[in-house]
Amino acid sequence: MRTETSGKEHTSRAFLIMSSAVILLVIIFSVFAWPDDRAKQADGSPATQALARLKEARYYSSQPPPGAAIIGSQTYALEKVLPAVLRDLGLRWEPDPRLATFCRWLNELYEVDFRPDSVAINEAASWLGLPEPLPHSLFMRVPPGPRLSSLIKERLLQLEHREEYTHYGALAEIHSSGLLTVIIAFSSRHLFLSPLPRNLGQSGEVEFRLGIFPGFKEPVLIHTPPEGQAKISPVEGENLSLHPVRIKLAFQSPGKHKVEVVARNERGPTVLANFPVYVGPQARQFSGGATDAIATREQSASAVRERLYDLINEERERAGLNRLERDPRLEEIARKHSLDMARNNFTGHVSPTTGGPDDRLRAAGIQFSYFGENVGQGYTSAQDIHSGFMDSPGHRMILLDPRYTHFGVGVETKGSGPNKAFLVTELFIKPGQTTTSTSSRQLLEKASQIRVRVGLNPVEEQAELSALAQRAAEEFSQKENFKMDELQLYLINTALAEKLGYERLGAVIITAATEDEIVDRISREQALPEKAGLGFKKISAGQRAGKILAILLY
In sequence order, what are the beta bridge partners of 536? Predict the structure, then answer.
């Protein structure tokens, strides 16, 4: 898959898309999950057995259902304390009973010192109807008493990016030791999702509404059917936080479909939703498990790295793809980025000090014609981290992209004991140089071939439009930055001056590292007519110097 550092701004009849990278992140936290007696169970794993004792949600929804968000035999110990602590810290987390149920499941596993893997975590979130990926948790076992409030506040103050979480649920129980067990689960829900069925008895089309909250832009929806070929669709709309758009998805094949929503913030592409939809009565199969938490504490970063190298190539071989060649230069870039994330407490593609992955590649003097990056955080094992990537349609597409030939994996750790986390960066490239030797017609022909394969209409070059687009590309590639209004005005004035006779023009602007990225972006553009023009030119000024500015007109 390609997830770009891309940007989209709507202005009258033009929109701006800045496309420069294939990058995605996943965070795999120590939380837990479960399946049911009616579903096929995963060899009776503790996570699956625990899940079987929970009520299954019928729908995914961003709206919490009615019920208590603080549960357990010692509910009274938390009912006043936790909301007060959240207020004191200025956190506007909203209660969600589903996260309280999630805590009950965690407690059952913690009682036997087991930790669920990332697949089990996602299955649990799905089972409970949570659209966002991977709820996170805080676990405490403390003496009952008046210090509970200060202890919770102390732990929450240690929580990274706590202001980005939006919902919580909690549990309080007395442990056999006499200590009070407190589990608080919290998640980041930055989208609106109207109720969407989790299980479909037969194939069909589902309509739902989707909105994206402020702070995120350029949302895309990725639908991966059981056959495995993902379809990526931009989520188009004005002010999606106030005006959710109606979306229709066709679930035709029986089996497990994956739905993912990705949008971009200041740290790059971020997964906002990731959940399965099952079609057919026998569709649900669960593979998540739980491992002995103590047995996994001594894994080294180097052991995780070496195993990830093997897992990636094994996965590619199963898919009938070429094995990737290990590149020490890419490994060092990936290691340094993982170290940057560990030291500066973030998980993302865009670093405040080194920029994005393409910036890091260029700084190392590596020439590439195509690149991609997966970043993530995990707590248990290489297999768990890899499973988390493969369970995300976007990360899976990057890992299985047939164009890559070389890769590097970097792993660093932070924390210790049961809280030790592995920060992972996987960097993929196809070596080569950024050139602009191909003609506009050739790029459009390449994009059209891909579009036909995925069921979209081909695009034929309109020479007149290509000439106008080329002049615009040559003009604006020399500017350090420009606004969409400037480009619109240039196109309108030039079209009028040359009497081209167009009443309206649509424009897609792409900044890309390579021609392959331009082709990839055009091949995925949904609403293109059968004729269009393309112009492109290497940028000579500003922070994006060396990249290619492409302008597609229709």
Answer: 550
d(CA 456, CA 248): 17
How distant is the alpha carbon of residue 60 from its chain centre? 18
How far is the C-alpha of 550 from the C-alpha of 519, rounded, in Å? 10
Supply 327's token pair: 């590149």
Contact 106, 54 (CB under 8 A): no
Nearest to 192 by CA among 213, 167, 165, 178: 213
For residues 337 and 350, give the distance between their C-alpha atoms in angstroms, rounded to a whole number: 10
For residue 426, give both structure tokens. 């996987």
Interaxial angle between packed helices 484-497 and 463-476, expressed in degrees from 0 to 180 and rounded to the nearest 10: 130
CA atoms within 13 A of residue 211's CA, in its CB half-sphere = 15
Burial of 395 (0-12, 13-18, 19+ CB in 10 A): buried
| Number of CB atoms found within 10 A of residue 95's CB | 18
Measured CA distances, 315 to 220, 273, 322 (Å): 25, 24, 10
Residues 129 and 111: their CA atoms lie apart, in Å, by 25
Cβ proximity of 61 and 96 under 8 Å? no
The pTM (predicted TM-score) of the whole model is 0.68
377 closest CA partner among 411, 345, 424, 334: 424
Residue in this structure with the two tokens 């089972």, named with its chain if needed: 127
Per residue of the chain (554 residues), give pLDDT as tens: 223 323 333 222 233 222 333 444 444 333 322 223 333 333 457 777 888 788 899 999 999 999 999 999 999 989 999 999 999 999 999 999 999 999 999 999 888 777 787 778 888 999 999 999 889 899 999 998 889 999 999 999 988 789 999 999 999 999 988 999 999 999 999 999 999 999 998 999 999 999 999 999 888 898 989 887 778 888 888 888 888 999 999 999 999 999 999 888 887 788 999 999 999 876 566 655 555 554 545 478 999 999 999 999 999 999 999 999 999 999 999 999 999 999 988 888 888 888 888 889 988 989 887 788 999 888 778 888 998 888 888 888 889 988 899 999 999 998 776 668 899 999 999 887 654 456 888 888 888 888 887 778 888 888 778 888 888 888 888 877 777 777 777 777 777 665 566 666 788 888 888 888 888 888 888 778 888 889 888 887 777 778 888 989 88
Angle 538-540-543 from CA coordinates, rounded to 5°? 105
Containing H/E element for 449?
helix 440-453
Query: What's the number of CA atoms in the CB half-sphere (13 Å) around residue 56?
Result: 16
